[in-house]
Amino acid sequence: MISGLHRPTKLVIDRQAIKANIQQEIQRLPQTTELWAVVKADGYGHGMVAVATTAKHAGATGFCVAILDEALGLRQAGFTEPILVLGITSPEYAKLAANAHISLSVGTQDWLAAALPVLQSDNVTASLAIHFAVDSGMGRIGFRESAALQQADAYLQQHQEFNLEGLFTHFATADEQDTAYFEQQVAAFQQMRQALASEPRYVHVSNSATSLWHDACNGNMVRFGVALYGLNPSGAVLQPPYPLQPALSFTTELVFVKQIQAGAAVSYGATYHAQQAEWIGTVPVGYADGWQRRLQGFHVLVDGQYCEIIGRVCMDQLMVRLPNKLPVGTKVTLVGVDGSRTITLQDVATYAKTIHYEITCNLSPRVPRVYLPEKSM
Ligand SMILES: *Cc1c(COP(=O)(O)O)cnc(C)c1O
């Protein structure tokens, strides 16, 4: 996709905030517990390689991604740390993963059996690192029965094409006040864990929420995702043990300003009619940039003042009602701080009836990412 370098719309990513969030978390972890940075989906929209670079400087010792291509992207960018693909990869790519020293998540013995001939073909230069996924109640991927896990473990031990590097599970409710289901999952995982002949190098259960609020069960690695971007995984339900610093701001400028008379309409469908003579600003951001149509009625900051998004959000532009005449080129903040006022990604998500994860992931590659530098130690 073409990135818009000649329009004022940009995402500003504060690398120091990312660094600080990771360093705070590492300080809370015992020395024996590693932090792997989750940088899937282009680093939750923040830019995978830039986030991974900063995470490494902050002390992350490995990375988690969702799909094999993201892992290969990190290797291409020169990262030599361990990388785990959290989703299911087709066994036909076992050789590609093995040769790039990329670890894969596996939840059936059938997967191992299908990958074996691929790993026995020519030019395989390394064994394939496996993390067994345990489905302790998330209902997504992984072994659900001890017997099946035990058999897969035995199969793996018989085939030197594989090496068991990890065992993990994922919690469905670690970000909630009520811990009953969480504790049920912990118990299920502890029981499944007994099925292995011996413990692998990494046993890991923690996403951000688990590491922030249930660190007692962390294991020896945490998969630290959304919190490294400075976002509270629970929304506003639980408070993190240290203040998270949001890394992302979304800014642009007014590109057109006009006064319209009472009764005049704005945007598709002519759904908005001015009550009186009003100053209207046009903002070069639309749903093609990831600013959803349902954000009609929400606000932006123009010159530090809240201004309502009026009329329908278009593909590439939206209109706001200004308090008074303002010049073209006036700063517009869609996410971030301007003066004494702030719009958080949580505010946007709440208005759009979703979670901040979805808002950042939807920010299109058309919007350039600009990086503020890390401070050195
Ligand atoms: C995405 C993901 C994570 C990271 O979750 P956050 O809530 O962003 O910390 C951890 N583990 C698995 C299996 C995931 O899919």
From TrEMBL:
The modification N6-(pyridoxal phosphate)lysine is found at K40. Substrate binds at R140, M315. Keywords: Isomerase, Pyridoxal phosphate. It is an enzyme of class 5 (isomerase). Its cofactor is pyridoxal 5'-phosphate. The keyword Cell membrane does not apply. Pathway: Amino-acid biosynthesis; D-alanine biosynthesis; D-alanine from L-alanine: step 1/1. The active site is at K40 (proton acceptor), Y268 (proton acceptor). It catalyses: L-alanine = D-alanine. Its EC number is 5.1.1.1. One of its GO terms (molecular function) is alanine racemase activity. Residues 247-372 form the Alanine racemase C-terminal domain. Pfam families: Ala_racemase_C (PF00842), Ala_racemase_N (PF01168). Catalyzes the interconversion of L-alanine and D-alanine. May also act on other amino acids. This is Alanine racemase.
